[in-house]
């Protein structure tokens, strides 16, 4: 009997896993949805979280308490669905999530939740420096400014609500300036000309830290134009202008004098003004008010490229400005017709270096250094195909060469 029982025992052990496997294959999917059913005081920034075993989400339906459908989009990682607009305060919503297993069986889970009343907490003001229906240069980062700054412990939650889509796809990452006043998004390489970039900063009602909320949802879609880059060399006192890797023109310049030097670094044209006024009253080394033509901002601190007919005799020879790049009236007018906001500008060989965050400084560091500033993991496969801080003549796309932060209109 003992001998006979042994084969039976062995048979039972080998049959068990097969039976369990068949049962697992036939098991319906299991769905967990957040917010949990009957949750109250949900932020209006809420999204529908989904967690599925033995299957995948095949349908999500979100409706308000009047039965109206609420459009939502899935996250790329499948972890949830984000409403296209913030939810309304003090309203009830129902989410119905359906998942389908490999066997074809389905499971549906419902949850009903109620949003919080309008918050009395102070709002963090955000400014999106990426305007709709514009054409930008190939180095234009998507830039958000914050006032007050975002504390480190809140940056991951904020970053998860910042969405960028590109067509054709050029994935990138967000990176935070150390003081939390600014976050910038770029890809490892400059944008390819013709790329369409769509941005949503979905921060309205988002809890930020313990004492604040996000102020607004902001959206913009723009496109990338031709590639123009400017290389400014203090050693030669010359600006070299490139288009698609080819030299268009060399322009004599006068940079900042010793007491007010121009910053060396890789920056981006931020604004363009046919006419503006530099008012430096109350600033160190300032005290003057002057009207200027054809001014292009490079830093929040007030460094511009601009027309300076008063220094044309020094341009190409001597630095006489208060930190700006002075060019002739003719050259400044020509540049205004060639450049775009978002064009790369590199200044070399001056006495001081550009501070990170003083302008759109996403290209002033290597890709690896930039990626370290992300509050969320960055995919390991994202790497530049060219120098992380490219030579001005390098062609975008990786081919070989051929609130807002405090701003100043000091100029000079």
From TrEMBL:
This is L,D-TPase catalytic domain-containing protein. The keyword Ribosomal protein does not apply. Pathway: Cell wall biogenesis; peptidoglycan biosynthesis. The active site is at residues 306, 324. PANTHER family: L,D-TRANSPEPTIDASE, L,D-TRANSPEPTIDASE YCIB-RELATED. It holds the Pfam family YkuD. CDD domains: YkuD_like. Keywords: Acyltransferase, Cell shape, Cell wall biogenesis/degradation, Peptidoglycan synthesis, Transferase. Residues 228-348 form the L,D-TPase catalytic domain. Residues 15-42, 67-87, 375-412 are annotated as: Disordered. SUPFAM superfamilies: L,D-transpeptidase catalytic domain-like. InterPro entries: Big_10, LD-transpeptidase, LD_TPept_cat_dom, Transpep_catalytic_dom. Residues 390-412 have a biased composition (Low complexity).
């Amino acid at each position: 009997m003992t001998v006979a029982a042994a084969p039976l025992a062995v048979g039972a052990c080998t049959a068990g896993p097969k039976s369990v496997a068949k049962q697992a294959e036939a098991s319906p999917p299991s769905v967990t949805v957040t917010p949990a059913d009957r949750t109250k005081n949900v932020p209006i920034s809420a999204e529908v979280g989904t967690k599925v075993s033995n299957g995948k989400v095949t349908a999500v339906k979100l409706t308000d308490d009047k039965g109206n459908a609420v459009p939502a989009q899935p996250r790329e990682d499948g972890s949830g669905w984000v409403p296209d607009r913030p939810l309304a305060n003090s309203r009830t919503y129902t989410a119905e999530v359906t998942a389908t297993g490999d066997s074809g069986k389905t499971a549906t889970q419902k949850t009903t939740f109620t949003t919080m009343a309008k918050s009395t907490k102070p709002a963090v003001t955000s400014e999106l420096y990426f305007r709709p229906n514009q054409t930008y240069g190939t180095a234009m980062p998507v830039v958000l400014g914050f006032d007050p700054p975002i504390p480190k412990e809140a940056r991951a939650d904020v970053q998860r609500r910042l969405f960028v889509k590109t067509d054709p796809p050029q994935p990138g990452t967000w990176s935070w300036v150390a003081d939390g006043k600014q976050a910038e998004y770029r890809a490892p390489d400059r944008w390819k000309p013709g790329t369409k970039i769509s941005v949503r900063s979905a921060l309205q009602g988002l809890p930020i830290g313990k004492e604040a909320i996000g102020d607004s949802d902001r959206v913009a879609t723009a496109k990338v134009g031709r590639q123009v880059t400017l290389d400014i060399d203090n050693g030669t006192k010359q600006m070299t202008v490139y288009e698609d890797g080819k030299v268009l023109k060399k322009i004599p310049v006068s940079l900042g004098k010793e007491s007010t030097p121009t910053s060396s670094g890789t920056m981006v044209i931020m604004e363009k003004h046919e006419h503006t006024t530099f008012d430096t009253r109350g600033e160190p080394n300032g005290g003057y008010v002057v009207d200027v033509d054809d001014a292009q901002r490079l830093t929040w601190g007030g460094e511009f490229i601009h027309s300076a007919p008063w220094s044309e005799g020094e341009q190409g020879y001597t630095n006489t400005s208060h930190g700006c790049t002075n060019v002739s009236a003719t050259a400044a007018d020509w540049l205004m017709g060639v450049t775009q906001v978002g064009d790369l500008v590199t200044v070399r060989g001056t006495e001081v270096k550009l501070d990170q965050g003083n302008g759109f400084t996403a290209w002033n560091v290597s890709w690896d250094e930039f990626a370290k500033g992300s509050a969320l993991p960055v995919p390991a496969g994202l790497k530049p195909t060219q120098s992380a801080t490219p030579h001005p003549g390098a062609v975008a796309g990786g081919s070989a060469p051929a609130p807002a932060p405090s701003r100043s209109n000091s100029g000079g």
